[in-house]
Write a structure and sequence with these properties.
It is built from 13 helices and no strands. It is mainly α. It is globular.
Length: about 290
């Protein structure tokens, strides 16, 4: 028994075809609506940040320390330097640890029990609230020592950044084709050299993206620093003492009744936003030119 194929007109009149077209249109409409709502919310947030933040940008913001309550003027120089030190040391710690751990999971660990346990713990760390990390570091590095410090804040930020770098590195290395590894091994290169000089080099752009994601995440973390680095009204480079940082200063100043403090909080929020944006753009342009070269 032969079946006669439907022509275009008959297919357009088919109830099944109409239902599928209607479902496609509804799904497309909902997707576009969600995108528009998200873009409007993001535009609104950025517009308010730009309007209120630019009004607080001046030379004093970068040269003066945070003012006392009710004192006009002042700036965020101590908080800016403190944030740079905390994030810089955190990056120096989390980048090699996360990359080396990611190389182990992708190239050596496979599906062994230890590798699977590491992935499980990493996934837990990725989903753990940052305030829990802050409380944990407070219990082991602040309460036992007896004082808040920049080192404790760096430890808390590193515990947040390492899982991001690790999982991104592992995923990027798994995307490298296996024949590339086999070709390098066939030339007599040992496995460690293949992993570092061939596989990691092929995935360096993706790995760098993971590092940038980790830096972007820890740059605005407030809860862990409230329990570890706390704050410091004065300029200090001593990592063994409480250290000023932008996230905590923004939190405290934004909640204050003083207009000068609130204005400084908007300026600090704008600095963090543009710093992370500039870091991402610079790194992407740099690595794109390196690849083309």
């Amino acid at each position: 028994m032969s079946t006669k194929p439907l022509n275009v007109q008959e297919l357009a009149r088919s109830p099944l075809y109409r239902r599928r077209v209607m479902s496609n249109r509804v799904g497309l409409f909902l997707s576009l609506s969600a995108m528009v709502v998200g873009l409007l919310a993001l535009t609104w947030i950025l517009a308010v940040l730009l309007i209120k933040g630019f009004s607080a940008i001046n030379l004093d913001l970068f040269t003066q320390i945070t003012p006392a309550p009710g004192t006009p003027g002042g700036g965020l120089s101590n908080a800016i330097v403190g944030s740079l030190m905390l994030v810089g040391v955190c990056t120096a710690i989390s980048t090699p640890v996360g990359i080396l751990a990611g190389i182990y999971l992708a190239e050596y660990g496979g599906h062994s029990r230890f590798a699977n346990l590491t992935r499980f713990v990493t996934d837990i760390m990725l989903s753990a609230p940052s305030i829990v990390v802050g409380l944990f570091v407070y219990a082991i590095a602040v309460a036992t020592v007896g004082n808040f410090s920049g080192w404790a804040g760096t430890l808390a930020l590193s515990l947040i950044a390492v899982p991001v770098v690790l999982r991104t590195t592992e995923n990027m290395l798994n995307l490298v084709p296996t024949p590339l590894r086999e070709a390098a091994s066939a030339l007599g290169a040992p496995k460690w050299k293949v992993s570092l000089s061939v596989v990691l080099r092929a995935a360096k752009s993706g790995v760098m993206t993971g590092v940038l994601l980790a830096v972007a995440r820890v740059s605005g973390e407030t809860a862990p620093l409230l329990f570890t680095a706390l704050n410091n009204q004065f300029f200090s480079l001593d990592m063994g003492q409480p250290m000023a940082n932008l996230p905590v200063v923004i939190f405290q100043f934004a909640m204050s009744p003083y207009e000068d403090w609130v204005s400084l909080a908007w300026g600090g929020a704008l600095l963090i936003t543009f710093s992370v944006l500039a870091l991402n753009i610079t790194a992407r342009v740099f690595f794109r030119e390196k690849v083309q070269a």
